[in-house]
Structure formats: C-alpha cells, structure tokens
Design brief:
mainly alpha; elongated; 93 residues; 71% helix
Length: 93
C-alpha cells in the first residue's frame, strides 16, 4: 500500500484508509446484492420471508467467519502499515 499523506498526523491518514476500505466494500456489496435481488425477484425465485429466516449450516457458518476475518484484516491493513515497514514512517511536509 503506497504512502499517501493528507494530514499532519499519519494516524489520521491510516484511519482514513480504513474508512475508505469500508466504503469500497459496502458499495460493492450493495451493488451486487441489489442486482441479485432484482434478478431473483424477476425470475420468481426469491421469497423475502424465506431469505430473512435462513439459517446457515455449520460449514457455511465457518466459511462466513473465515470471510469475516479476511475482511477485517483487509479493512485494518492501513492501521498496521507502519508496523510492517522496515524504514521509518514518512514525515509530512
């Protein structure tokens, strides 16, 4: 991840990176979910009450938890960037 500096405090830049990662994830998920719901409703395959009452299997739950952990790692990556580099952090002008 390249160092981009917008604020004097590099911690604020890392927090901004986290927020932007979350915003990107939310946008992609909303867009895909909206598309899937439209396609499934148009085909008559989607029953919203069935969707809302769905209970995942143990295997599905484990897969979801692994996906959640990966998402959290990606979202928090900017917060860990300073600790992972060997050179000193960039000092803003």
């Amino acid at each position: 991840m390249p160092d981009l500096t917008f604020f004097r405090d590099p911690t604020v830049d890392r927090v901004l990176g986290v927020v932007m990662e979350l915003a990107a994830e939310v946008y992609v998920l909303r867009d895909r979910l909206h598309t899937m719901e439209r396609l499934l409703q148009a085909s008559g395959m989607l029953d919203l009450t069935e969707l809302e009452g769905y209970e995942p299997t143990e295997a599905e739950r484990a897969q979801r938890l692994a996906g959640r952990d990966a998402l959290i790692a990606r979202i928090l990556a900017p917060m860990h960037a300073e600790f992972e580099r060997s050179e000193p952090p960039f000092e803003p002008a």
